[in-house]
Automatic annotation (TrEMBL):
Boundaries of every Condensation domain copy: 55-335
Protein name, UniProt field: Condensation domain-containing protein
Biological processes, Gene Ontology terms: amino acid activation for nonribosomal peptide biosynthetic process; lipid biosynthetic process; secondary metabolite biosynthetic process
Alphabetized Pfam families for the sequence: Condensation
Species of the source: Phytohabitans suffuscus
SUPFAM superfamilies (UniProt xref): CoA-dependent acyltransferases (SSF52777)
Length: 448
């Protein structure tokens, strides 16, 4: 199908795009993100065509590709028009269309992506007995993030909007080329300088070491441990009700305390992913604007509630300084490390990816501790191993209903698999204890 939209040109990558571009190069992935979901009854292939054409025309991000120029710079290229295909897959009469849709999703994600030639959108409709039952949408993370994808999904679900039966409101958020221009402006550079000054002060004070060192290196090298814990969901609701602190801070506090117990390292230093939608012009942007803020959390001899309060304060402060050019930050880290005479390990990350289920975590809390304890029997731990590299430690909260689904992805040449399981189990146990006992102590013995 043909599409066209407002805005075109060539510009530097925005800071958010640059952050993801470098991560993709480190991890050898184009970071596909998306879904395979049932469609509402009555949906037609023409509806999907209209959605795809609407997406491509409305959002410059969906018309963005990347090219490498002779000067060695990678730049974003936004097209004014073009052509894109919608795949229609017919499931056999005896097949489960949901399984077919999931197979299409996996195929889209596994296929290579040419950043210079391919559009960052892949869409398919699955039909069963000739009737559309499922839709598959995969987006390249370079052009959007989870919160940007929510903006897209909210608009393309409006049939009147995508079919042109009502006026299309103007795009008010900064688009990727405008973001890059603002970032290079005097105002953008002043804000950037203030962010780097803050980072430099923190970098000069933090312990250089994050992890105990290689104790049980494995092959494949990179392991993921994922715990599905209904008990933690109930416990977090109880902690939220007692403390009024947001659930993302509660989950970060559980991770920080549990990791400190496993490693004996205090303070814990982690890079928290900030969505940056609180910044001017970015609330409704489709473009990727997530960065990480550096969060330093000393624990010592405190209660969990005291640690939680500190985590919340320090995370909010870290978010304020989580918008920067990653190339310049890398130079700063290298300079401070050289001046300190030791390498600075900043490869511990925390990302709360919940979009749909975040509010469900804040539902009415359980009133009986026995209800929380009984749910422990439904916990499920899963492992995945791969050779594809990741960061040394990346903690993620996943968007799953009726449970708290959290994972640790780690390099076993730095972190033993047993430590991953101990941390996850420790988070669950701490949550259950702290749900109704504000006096729980966080650490008995720590090392610096």
């Amino acid at each position: 199908m043909r599409f066209e939209g407002d805005g075109s040109g060539v510009e530097e990558l925005s800071w958010g795009q640059r952050e993801l571009w470098e991560a993709m190069r480190r991890q050898f992935t184009w970071m596909p993100m998306g879904f395979a979901l049932p469609v509402p009854p009555g949906t037609t292939v023409d509806d999907a065509v209209a959605q795809l054409r609407f997406m491509m025309g409305r959002y410059q991000s969906m018309r963005t590709r990347v090219r490498r120029d002779p000067d060695g710079h990678d730049r974003q290229v936004v097209a004014a028009s073009g052509e894109i295909g919608l795949e229609v897959v017919d499931a056999d009469p005896g097949e489960d269309p949901a399984a077919v849709a999931e197979a299409v999703r996996q195929r889209f994600c596994d296929a290579d992506h040419d950043f210079a030639r391919d559009w960052p959108v892949r869409m398919a409709v699955v039909r069963h007995h000739g009737v559309p039952t499922h839709q598959v949408v995969i987006l390249c993370h370079l052009v959007t993030d989870g919160f940007g994808a929510l903006v897209i999904m909210r608009e393309i679900e409006d049939r009147d909007l995508v079919h042109g039966r009502v006026p299309v409101p103007p795009v008010t958020a900064l688009e990727p080329m405008a973001q890059a221009r603002w970032e290079a402006s005097p105002a953008g550079q002043r804000e950037h300088a203030a962010v780097l000054r803050r980072w430099e002060g923190v970098l000069r004070d933090i312990p250089a070491r994050r992890f105990p060192g290689p104790a049980d290196p494995r092959e494949p090298r990179h392991w993921q441990a994922r715990l599905d814990s209904p008990a933690t969901l109930l416990a977090v609701r109880a902690i939220r009700a007692r403390t009024t602190v947001d659930t993302s801070s509660i989950l970060l506090a559980l991770f920080v305390v549990s990791w400190a117990r496993v490693t004996g390292v205090d303070p814990v230093v982690t890079r928290v992913v900030a969505n940056n939608r609180f910044r001017r012009g970015l609330a409704e942007t489709v473009s990727p604007v997530t960065h990480t803020g550096l969060c330093v959390i000393p624990l010592g001899d405190t209660t969990f509630d005291e640690a939680l309060s500190a985590v919340h304060r320090r995370t909010v402060a870290a978010y304020r300084y989580a918008y920067y050019d990653p190339r310049e930050l890398d130079k700063l880290v290298a300079r401070v490390a050289a001046e300190r005479g030791e390498q600075l390990d900043l490869s511990c990350f925390f990302n709360d990816r919940r979009l749909v289920t975040r509010d469900l975590t804040e539902a009415p809390p359980p009133s009986d501790p026995a209800e929380v304890t009984a749910a422990l029997g439904r916990s499920r731990l899963r492992w995945h191993r791969q050779d594809k590299p990741v960061e040394r430690l990346f903690a993620t909260i996943n968007d799953e209903p009726d449970t708290l689904d959290y994972e640790l992805f780690a390099d076993t040449h730095h972190i033993a698999p047993a430590d991953l399981e101990s941390c996850l189990r420790g988070m669950e146990a701490l949550a259950v204890r702290a749900a109704f006992d504000p006096s729980v102590r966080v650490l008995e013995k720590v090392a610096t």
